[in-house]
Design brief:
single chain; three-stranded mixed β-sheet; 7 helices; mainly alpha
Length: about 170
């Protein structure tokens, strides 16, 4: 019997599908081009950042300790668009996990040094990664508009609450 997908999983998969649709229309040159409007970052760098946060969460599920600071930073993900598309598909396949308590570890203050540890949960971190992805997709939209003639959907890179607010206003 297949486990029913949670709304957050459906939302995440839909969001990553949107990202894949846009990325699949880019050449590797467009994908990896540093853009002044993005502080010399590329669409690929923003995509790598999204992918790696999800990979850290997935790879940390068993241990229950998540530290996004210690991600791999795979430069191939920011230069090879097809590799990033494969990684996004893997994320969608692996996201459905039972919720459980986890510890979030990170260096959140350069001035204070050291690591901060807080309790979280797997589903809370999935939600964080979804919001994090949407934020970076907003940057990707800027990059796509700067380098291509692609028509990016108006809601691409916009938080669902913002979309809902716009429709009700």
């Amino acid at each position: 019997m297949k486990q029913q997908e949670l709304p957050i999983e459906t939302s995440l998969k839909n969001t990553l599908d949107e990202l894949q649709r846009i990325l699949s229309q880019l050449s590797d040159e467009q994908y990896r081009l540093p853009l002044q409007i993005l502080s010399d970052a590329s669409i690929g760098q923003h995509t790598r950042h999204i992918v790696e946060f999800f990979q850290v969460l997935h790879n940390s599920y068993k241990s229950g300790v998540v530290n996004y600071d210690k991600r791999q930073r795979n430069r191939l993900l920011e230069t090879d668009c097809s590799l990033a598309l494969i990684a996004l598909t893997e994320i969608k396949k692996n996201i459905s996990q039972q919720d459980k308590e986890i510890l979030l570890v990170g260096s959140y203050s350069y001035e204070l040094g050291g690591e901060i540890i807080v309790r979280s949960s797997y589903h809370r971190e999935v939600l964080y990664n979804l919001e994090h992805a949407i934020h970076h997709m907003a940057m990707i939209k800027i990059g796509v508009r700067q380098t291509t003639q692609l028509q990016v959907p108006p809601d691409f890179g916009v938080a669902p609450a913002t979309i809902q607010h716009r429709k009700s206003a």
